[in-house]
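A.,

Following up on our hallway conversation. Structure tokens first:
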């Protein structure tokens, strides 16, 4: 009898940097264990992805914005609405075409931010697996609030959430705390992410059990809610996990030379600053951050996307000279893995947070919106690897240079800095243990692959 072909998994991330990379890395881990994987993104995104020949296949579908992607939509809300409508149709057509071409999919792993994909899978009789690119903490808050199991705290009060320290309103994800007014579609989507999960066969979280075990316990109501992260490429953690191919996708051109710039800096002497692919500060806040970095007195490497660089105060770069370097985009993992970096000033996007934890770099948390305020609280209060410069997000944030300078100093020097550094090293080791043979994420991957192998064609 001919051997069974390996299961073929369709991986569907929401089309943005912070969602594609974790799901691509997850696809790579799957492939290293036997299944085939095809990552599906939009025509616009695929045009800017330079994929090396890789074991993960790529394919693209239309989201209705083939020329300009999300930036060509009138608003994020408009984009999300159209993505669901057009994406549902083009995804179904793609799955049918694969079937007709004799290369059917066995299962779909879809991003919880593309919940319509679950309906497509159900319609076409394909098992569906939800993949959350957020922390279990943020997911649990969305879930409890959506089910009316948790009130949103009023100003000045706190609520308790299983497995989390008492939470104030500004520490909730911004879509729950206040963005319903600004981003109604995104708020509905964030809250409703888990509405359809009863239909999903598995729910995978890009986290590790050791990091969020208690809060994860509250989500065990779902069938097979498991952690499989962090999806940081294993070349930065332990090459024996799944080889040393990085496979990350950079939608912006990274400045590799900044890694060499770090080479002649003393260990743990440089402050790395990045607010990810989306967040923006206004000119006043950018200036406060700039002067805070200047006043802290350490060398710094600052990722300021090209569209943001005009907000730097006049004469700032000349004033700091060689001590500061500003780049439009960098290979963040290489930077965080570099011994010269002593601190990460971050917006606390979930990927950046996991990357800092995985590579043992303490943080100054400057959350802006979405799940970042919740991640920032965990960084400071639960995992003990950083301090918060602001306790809320977005419009509420009044960054001051004194606060930035003070927070950077706390993370770079003194007794508290040593404690945060040693906690960071402990988490780095925990991550290695979770991903390595027999670790919590490894075991969950083994069982997930067994599930895939059990699906009848
Ligand atoms: N990133 C990068 N180079 C940069 C800044 C960020 O490669 O100069 C990567 C970073 O490593 C992370 C992702 O972009 O994987 C940002 O994801 P995150 O969830 O932290 O933030 P988002 O961009 O979604 O707000």
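Then the amino acids I'd put at each of the 457 positions:
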């Amino acid at each position: 009898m001919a051997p069974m072909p390996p299961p073929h998994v369709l991986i569907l991330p929401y089309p943005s940097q912070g969602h594609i990379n974790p799901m691509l890395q997850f696809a790579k881990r799957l492939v290293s264990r036997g299944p085939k994987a095809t990552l599906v993104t939009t025509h616009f995104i695929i045009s800017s992805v330079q994929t090396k020949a890789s074991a993960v296949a790529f394919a693209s579908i239309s989201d209705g914005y083939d020329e300009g992607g999300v930036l060509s939509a009138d608003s994020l809300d408009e984009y999300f609405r159209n993505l669901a409508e057009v994406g549902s149709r083009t995804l179904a057509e793609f799955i049918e075409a694969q079937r007709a071409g004799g290369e059917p999919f066995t299962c779909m792993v879809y991003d919880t931010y593309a919940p319509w994909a679950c309906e497509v899978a159900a319609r076409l009789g394909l098992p569906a697996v939800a993949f959350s690119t957020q922390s279990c903490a943020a997911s649990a808050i969305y879930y409890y609030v959506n089910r009316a199991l948790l009130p949103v705290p009023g100003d000045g009060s706190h609520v308790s959430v299983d497995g989390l320290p008492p939470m104030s309103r500004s520490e909730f994800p911004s879509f729950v705390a206040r963005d319903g007014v600004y981003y109604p579609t995104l708020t509905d989507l964030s809250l409703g992410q888990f509405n359809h999960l009863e239909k999903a066969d598995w729910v995978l979280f890009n986290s590790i059990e050791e990091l969020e075990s208690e809060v994860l316990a509250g989500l065990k109501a779902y069938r097979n809610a498991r952690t499989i992260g962090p999806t940081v490429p294993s070349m930065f953690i332990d090459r024996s996990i799944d080889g040393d191919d990085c496979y990350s996708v950079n939608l912006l051109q990274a400045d590799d030379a900044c890694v060499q710039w770090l080479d002649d800096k003393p260990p743990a002497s440089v402050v790395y600053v990045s607010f990810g692919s989306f967040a923006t500060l206004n000119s006043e806040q950018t200036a406060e951050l700039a002067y805070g970095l200047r006043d802290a007195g350490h060398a710094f490497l600052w990722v300021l996307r090209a569209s943001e660089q005009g907000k730097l105060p006049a004469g700032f770069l000349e004033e700091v000279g060689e001590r500061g370097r500003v780049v439009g985009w960098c290979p963040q993992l290489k930077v965080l893995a570099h011994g010269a970096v002593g601190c990460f000033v971050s917006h606390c996007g979930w990927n950046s947070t996991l990357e800092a934890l995985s590579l043992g770099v303490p943080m100054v948390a400057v959350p802006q919106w979405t799940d970042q305020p919740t991640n920032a609280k965990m960084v400071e209060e639960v995992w003990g690897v950083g301090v918060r410069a602001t306790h809320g997000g977005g419009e509420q944030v009044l960054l001051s240079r004194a606060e930035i300078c003070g927070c950077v100093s706390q993370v770079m020097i003194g007794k508290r800095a040593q404690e945060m550094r040693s906690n960071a090293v402990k988490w780095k080791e925990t991550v290695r243990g979770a991903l390595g043979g027999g670790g919590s994420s490894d075991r969950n991957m083994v069982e997930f692959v067994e599930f895939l192998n059990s699906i009848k064609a």
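The two ends are 16 Å apart (CA to CA). Curious whether your intuition agrees with the design.

B.
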